[in-house]
Model the fold of this input.
Amino acid sequence: MDGDSTRVTGGERGNHGSSRGTSWRCIVDAACGVGEMPIWASGTGCLYWLDLYGPTINELELASGSRRTWQLPDMPGAYGLRRGDSSCVIATASGIYGLDLASGAIMLVRAAPYDQEHYRFNDGRCDPAGRLWFGTNRKPRSARPAGTASYWRLDETGLHEEIRGVTIANGIAFSPAGDLLYLADSPNDQILVFDYDPATGAVASRRVFATLEPGSFPDGAAVDAEGGYWTALFNGDRIVRLSADGALDRELPSPVPQPTMVSFGGANLRTLFLTTARRFLTEQESAAAPLAGGIFACDLDIAGIPEPRVIGLDPSPGEAARPDAWSVPS
Done:
């Protein structure tokens, strides 16, 4: 979701509840202004997510229920866990940071590559090779025209602008084989797909994968093991699955208004985690949905794929707090 905007109008409210026997449970009453980017760390049994207005990154150990929170310098857009799950790379409005989860040390390693008056980072994901992709969005008060945001790729060679011509970058995900890259340009209600070279990170053959109901505002997304693309419709109040050919295959009503992103996790990757937003609800809507902004989970009959970790530029154990361990080439 574009954390700077007011709630986008258009699209009808869904009927919140279960679908095809799916039952949502609130695992954290987080009251996020805008929750985003749930990532399951299988090695630790922990779920991470962002609260854009905290601004924080958060951790839940699912078995014990224990939680940790790290304060961030400004609004985050995306992040990736590093190998070993002891540190992460976070893109915020002001730049790219390295965060050591053990000590809480955070350091700026690369200033934002754009004019911060007009743009900020928004949404992202690691590709199967461990490259970290970040999208941007044009801020609502910017005089820059629509369609001037882009996607950036971070790897051991530096930070590269790869995809242009979007307004609010969202929904980035990769096919199970790693040969397709999906993304959403939310205001246009479209999912785009590119051919992707997992060996080099190169994209080609931009085309429309699916066009959704006008005003539904597709937000964060994930791909399952069968190649289905799941996206949270922020204004549609539901989660939809698109089959590998782009056809609407399944719909799950959201447990609360304003779902923001889904991801797969749990012991067998058959748990669907969901972040949501509270910020843009009216007083009446907030009263009717007291768990809005919470983190939810449901069990599915289909498995996801593991979230890749950031590879390259990895600090050695115990060195995550050293600034030189986080250097990013220009």
Q: What stands out?
A: The helical segments are 283-288. The chain has one helix and 24 strands. Confidence is low (pLDDT under 50) at residues 4-20, 315-321.
